[in-house]
Amino acid sequence: MRAAVLHEIGQEKLEVLDDVEAVGFGPGKVRLRIRATGLCHSDVSAMSGVLPQPAPFIPGHEGAGEVLDVGDGVTGLSAGDRVLVCWLPACGACPSCKRGQTHLCLAGFMNAGTPNFKRAGGDVFGFAGTGTFTEEVVVGAGCAVPIPDDVPFEIAALIGCGVTTGLGAAINTAKVEAGSSVAVIGCGGVGISTIQGARVQGAAQIVAVDPVASRREAALRFGATEAVSPDEFTDAKQRITAGEGFDYVFEVVGKSATARTAYEHTRRGGTLCVVGAGAMDDNFQANMFELFFDEKRILPSMYGGGDVLRSYERAIALWRAGRIDLESMITHRVRLDGINDALDQMRTGESLRTCVEL
C-alpha cells in the first residue's frame, strides 16, 4: 500500500512509497482504511525532532476513515463503520483515567514505541502510535471512534486533533468566562479553533496574534475581534485593557519566547493557557517573586483537557448547530503525492489546515 515515510529525523521531505504494509492486526486491534487526514503542526515538529518520535516513521495522527476488519475481543465496531482516529486513547484503568483525567492517560504514548508498519528494509513506526499519511493502518480498538453518518471524513479528521485541542483549551482548560478579554498567539488550525472556543464561551474581546497576514485575516472571519502582528501586541494590550493585560492569553506556538510574551500580556490574576507542543530543552522562565505577586494561573492544556470522547461529541454538536465553522478551516486539499507541498504551505503559514484525501 502507499504511505508517506520520513526516513530520518531532521529531513524536511517525505517519500511516498508503495511497498509499505500495516502490521500488528490481532486481538483488540482494528484495521482502518484512511479516507482523509489533516496535516497538523505536531507532524512537522516530530519530523524536525522537536517532539520525540522513533524513525523511520509515517507522520499523521489526525485522520478518519472506515473499519476494514476487527480483531478478536473488539466490541462496538464492525467492518464498514465510519470512524475518526483518536491518537490518545484512554485505557480506563490507570490512575489518570480513574481520576477522570483521561486525556493524561499514557497508554497511547506506549503505542508510539511499537512499529505498526513494515517494509522490506525493516520496521516503520506510526507517529503517536497511529500514522495516518497512509492508505491503511492498524491501531488499538480505542483509537477508532465511531462518527455519525452526516459528518464528512475531512471534518471528522480535524475533530480528531486540532479542533478538539483548540476548543478544549478555551472551554475545558481555561474555562473562558463570558464578557472576558482573550488573546490567542498563533493562528494556525489549533489557534483558530481556540478563537472559536473563546467565541462560543462568550468572550467580549478576542485578539488574534500572528506574523502571517493571511492568518490574521482568517482569524477575523472565525471570531477574532481584532488581529495584530506580534509587534503590535503590546499596543493592543494598552488600547483594549488599559495596560492591565488580558483575562486569558493562549500560547499556541510551543516556544518559550512566545509563552513569556503571553505571560507578560496576561493581567494579574489572569490565566496563561499553554496549548502549543514544544521541545524538551526549551525552558520557560519566570522569577519567584512575579509568580507569587502577580498570581497568574499557568495552565497547560493537553489535547484540550477533559474527556476527549465527550469533546468530540461537543464539537460535532456545535458544528451541526452552526456555532463553529470547520469547513472553512480547510484551506488546501491534496492527494498523498502532494504531501510535501502541503508541508511547505504549513511551514510558511499559507495554510490553516490541509486535508490529505486518500
Question: What can you see in these coordinates?
Answer:
With 358 residues, the chain is an alpha/beta fold. Helix content is 30%, strand content 26%. The chain contains twelve helices and 19 strands. The strands form four sheets. Strands 4, 6, 7, 10, 11, 18 and 19 form a seven-stranded mixed β-sheet that branches. It is globular, with a radius of gyration of 20 Å. The model has no long low-confidence stretch (mean pLDDT 96).
Question: Which labels suit this protein?
Answer:
358 residues; alpha/beta; seven-stranded mixed beta sheet; six-stranded parallel beta sheet; 12 helices
In brief, what are we looking at here?
With 358 residues, the protein is α/β, with parallel strands linked by helices. The chain has helices at 41-48, 95-98, 107-111, 153-159, 162-173, 189-201, 213-221, 233-241, 256-264, 288-294, 308-320, 339-348; strands at 3-5, 15-17, 21-22, 29-38, 57-58, 62-70, 82-85, 117-119, 122-126, 136-140, 144-146, 181-185, 205-209, 226-228, 246-251, 266-274, 297-300, 330-335, 353-357. Helix 5 (162-173) packs parallel to helix 6 (189-201) and helix 5 (162-173) packs across helix 11 (308-320).
